[in-house]
């Protein structure tokens, strides 16, 4: 008994060590971390690398706040924490400072500044009565020629969600993702006459992902082995807000140069900014086709297509021990519109029951196919139709339906993976009629699709 107790203790210790090892393997934190400087976004460096103006522009920001009223999404009751950080004015001022284009002045807490200046004046008047009055005067405050207004106007939760998973004999793995989205508007207002000089608009998605694996298995009548591992990663909202604000500041600078808003700050030096303006305009042109999720849909498919598939099929007939066999399919598609097409194909496959029956068929088919997301590189599709099976005897007729995924790997070139279910109209594919169930077949295929003709 004591021996078995030692074995159990050893097993528990080993399990703890493995858990610690897995923690290090997956990069999970196991010790406290030191405080660090704040992270930079991709646009921080772009702002700092902008060509500086002849003279910096004095600019004021009174309020740039969260205008969404959005609370953090919660699956367990109410959550009264806001979804967007409340210090967005500070983030904007930091972005203006990093750009080296502006001189930000304190306006968010102007009352504190004025109070402090009043304290300085009172103190000097009280304790420096005999001093030169000119030395007691404070220099005037800077005033802004331009004010920045706007804020975070939208926080959309669960813009896109999805996942993938599989489980077999108690062993499983899954992954999930979720995308939120924030939207920012920033406008420049002239203090001379109140004219709105320029308005820019940016958005940023916020990605959350999780990966999980599990093992659940009875290894004996009274022994259950269960193990789990998982990793979840959420993109910080603060960094997403910072990136969107920095992008808006850069857009404001570039559009101001292009539309000659900044006056003496640029004057006749616009030629040196032409590459920057050209790059920005190219991005604007690309942005015309962008949709939610930072995707760029387009018409990838032409009017006709030719395709070839490698197939594996398995019959469900009246005999036992059906076998998987390889076959091939070649076909032609005519696209009626981006969503629907007519599919005509011919394939060769063999149905076989081990050591009992084997027959090879030539199979022409006609299908109506629906492409679910024709403007995306990766799209699901479904189809259905009728076909015939020839093998030197009377033809066998059948119906079929299936579906799969197509990925446009290049211009007019797609890779497809699909599965198809064939349902015979009769029960004599194998030369025998037995029972009420018609002969059937399950087919899996992978292949290439070449699009030709005009869009």
TrEMBL record:
Keywords: Cell membrane, Lipoprotein, Membrane, Palmitate, Signal. Signal peptide: none annotated. PROSITE patterns: PROKAR_LIPOPROTEIN. Pfam families: CsgG. InterPro entries: Curli_assmbl/transp-comp_CsgG, OMP/PagP_B-barrel. It comes from the Bacteria. This is Curli production assembly protein CsgG. It comes from Chryseobacterium tagetis.
